[in-house]
What does this fold into?
Amino acid sequence: MPRRLLTAILLFLSAPLGAAAAAPDIVLITLDTTRADRMGFLGSKRGLTPHLDALARDGVVFLRAYAQAPLTTVSHATLFTGTYPQFHRVNDFGVPLPAELPALAELLQQRGYRTAAFVGAIILDPRNGLAPGFDRGFDLYDAGFRLRRGREDRYQTMERRAEEVVRRAVAWVEQNPPRPFFLWVHLFDPHDPYEPPPPYRQRFASAYDGEIAYTDAAVGRLLAALRARRLYDEALIAVASDHGEALGDHGEKTHGIFLYDDTLRVPLVLKFPQGKSAGRRLQSAVGLIDLAPTILAVAGAAVPPPMQGRSLLGLLAGPPLEQPAYAETDYPRRAFGWNSLAAWRSGDYLFVSAPRRELYALSGDPKAARNLAEKKPAEADKLAAELEAFRRRTERAVPAGAESGLDPKEMEKLTALGYVGGGFRPLPTGGPSGTDPKDKIQVANALHDAILAIESGQPQQAVPLLEQVVADNPQMYIAQYQLGVALVRQRKYREAIPPLENAVALLPDSSMAHYELGFALFETGVWKTAAAHFELAVSRMPKFADAHFSLAAVYARIDRVPEAVQELETALALNPQHSRAHLLLGRILTLQGRAADGLPHLEQAAALEPDLAEVYLFLADAYARLGRVEDARRARDQAERLRRPR
It folds into this structure.
């Protein structure tokens, strides 16, 4: 560390902060998908963020803060490890946070901190396969999300509203955890689909703005709770967004593809203990990569060598220290087979490494609308060389085959959040295709909209979008697959077979494509072929209970009953609440003359699906075979009631 920077940090830390300053309580709030230009403290006139604006007045505002990637897990991995994406290699959903890299919570825990995390969505749930290792170092990691079923509430299954996340976090604080504590609160609400609750839905013409205002109110409740318990003044409170949202800028609807300010510039506020440096507004370019080293420095902890970020305390106590800002996105490659992108901000310029490279002079073109790469090739060459040298200097080699971390079934959770890739379209060995994402952004937008339509129970809206994508891109696996899924969800099984067959041909290793094709074939009576696809799906996804059930159903149809029973038992071992597996197993056992063995399964099916007439017909037969005449009559009557038109 340069002597001048070390002296500046020591001067900052030696100021009279009081007894608590040696190990202050630390509160980290990450706002998902939050644009910097919606913050009042960064110049917005929309009036969305009064509570964040008040916090900013008590703290230090970093006017030019940037994410290192426009995706939630990648960006949070950078934030918690203080390393670049090319070093931590968490470049997609489901890739584990490397155990060999020190993580912020773990380091604070070793310093005696009590640690707790409260996250807002399945995307950061380690136990659901999308963010493995992110709970490392946390005494409590409050997640527990799952995919919604049928018409279940999105905010009771896959996500939590900000007010519920904050309620849980405040309840933890009110239990008087041992101090000092590190509390991380992640609020997902600004992520699409934009569905602000009343009154924010009615108050703002833009649903996205409504989500920002609602999230700000939740932050206000958390800060008020800290004040009420007299924790606010002495705490270090950090607020940052993991990335922004394009909202149509440069043609991108959401995020993940491009590397412009709309998705990479983020709000960043640090409120130091006892209001140290309150009201400062710093112009130096900084990154989320700098947050962990800064928090550790304030906590009095050493910054371990693997961390590549810098403590921002030096900027507070010393002169401005300008350095380039790097960002990358591998999502275009992982999701679609297009080229990855990398960005390099240096001085006045933004350079984007792409098949058709880009160069913008931001002082006169803040929205990056005029590409100067052809007019200034020497400047573009210089920045390209700087970017490449920086990347080589900061990357870390990983073992072959360490790229993908998602089980095929886990990918379904990404579609529920509107993401296309996450392993749906892995590239063959040999790297990216050379397709520039700029040329295909409308395809990405259409796929995103289609996937959200399917997830929200409106597959009929997805079909025309997907048919157009398939017509223009017949070799795109994900488009063929999702078209087949949309048709299956509408019970148009014969129509679903061709696109699903195309998907299997394009990507034979896709377990879910085989599963969905098997389902469509089963429903059209092509049972033996369906069995072959289900067998392949089961062999590759042995923990997927639905695949075992579907294989059992087709085995029962083709007179392979003992194998059907075995698959049903496996399905129930994996998911004891699988109602259809209970129903089919109960029926098979009854027909085999084992009604006493089948009855508990049928009764469990009735408990799980009390509105299904078929359950009571099978129950009536089992009761009759056991001589329970009155029970059989009641079950038949219930079946009749359920069959009547409502």
Q: What stands out?
A: Residues 207-228 form the longest helix (22 residues).
